[in-house]
Write a structure and sequence with these properties.
This is Biopolymer transport protein ExbD. One of its GO terms (cellular component) is plasma membrane. It comes from Pedobacter cryoconitis. Keywords: Cell membrane, Membrane, Protein transport, Transmembrane, Transmembrane helix, Transport. The protein has 200 residues and is of the alpha/beta class. The protein has one domain (47-199). It has seven helices and six strands; from the N terminus they run H-E-E-E-H-H-H-H-H-E-H-E-E. The strands form two sheets. The chain has a four-stranded mixed sheet, with helices on one face. Helix 2 (76-90) packs across helix 3 (96-103) and helix 2 crosses helix 6 (143-159). 21% of the residues are buried.
Length: 200
């Protein structure tokens, strides 16, 4: 009796659905990702063994290095609110477009009088403009204290919580420069703040 030959058929798996899902996920992650903003000041922070993650909301970061102070607040709504408060204090009108542009600037270190010009520039020109001389923090013109105060008010009004403060200081920075910033915080009764460090 002859053997019956079983007809062989090629096994194929339809990958169309999987490819569609992969590209949808890839597109989603690309569109929702936020690019890391470059630091305006190259700061070599000291190392530490202590681990505590810096929160992503309701925080202000003061970057200190080379005798300059830079300020960063988290949240676009907080940035717009504190800009409006600073504008009211220093009698500077900011347009809705300027407020929108300011809300996406990560960190800045310019006197408030140069802020309109700074906001009007694109990111590449800001670096080379020479405007980033640091936020004035001396006793005669203490704009840093005003920025901290107005950002705290903005967080309290918008998020009904207390703002946290972190200091990101250069490892080579002299002690008096850091002490001056700590004194500004303590005058506003901010006695609890964190120091940002690298992990050892």
């Amino acid at each position: 009796m002859p053997r019956i030959k079983v007809k062989r058929s090629a096994l194929t798996v339809d990958m169309t659905a999987m490819t569609d899902v992969s590209f949808l996920l890839l597109t989603f992650f690309i569109l929702t990702a936020v690019a890391k903003q470059p630091d305006p000041l190259d700061v070599k922070i000291p190392s530490s063994t202590y681990k505590l993650k810096v929160p992503e909301t309701d925080i202000a970061i003061l970057t200190i290095g080379k005798g300059k102070v830079f300020f960063e607040a988290a949240g676009q709504d907080v940035k717009i609110s504190m800009l409006e408060k600073m504008g009211a204090q220093y009698h500077i009108d900011f347009s809705p477009e300027e407020k929108k542009r300011f809300s996406v600037i990560s960190s800045f270190g310019v006197p408030v009088q140069s802020l309109k010009k700074f906001i009007g520039m694109d990111a590449a020109k800001r670096k080379s403009s020479g405007l980033e001389t640091g936020i004035p923090a001396d006793s005669a013109n203490n704009q840093l204290s005003d920025w901290v105060l107005h950002s705290r008010k903005a967080v309290a009004e918008l998020h009904t919580t207390a703002m946290r403060v972190s200091i990101k200081g250069d490892a080579d920075e002299e002690y008096p420069a850091i002490k001056k910033i700590v004194d500004i915080l303590q005058k506003q009764k901010i006695n609890k703040f964190s120091l940002m460090t690298n992990q050892e």
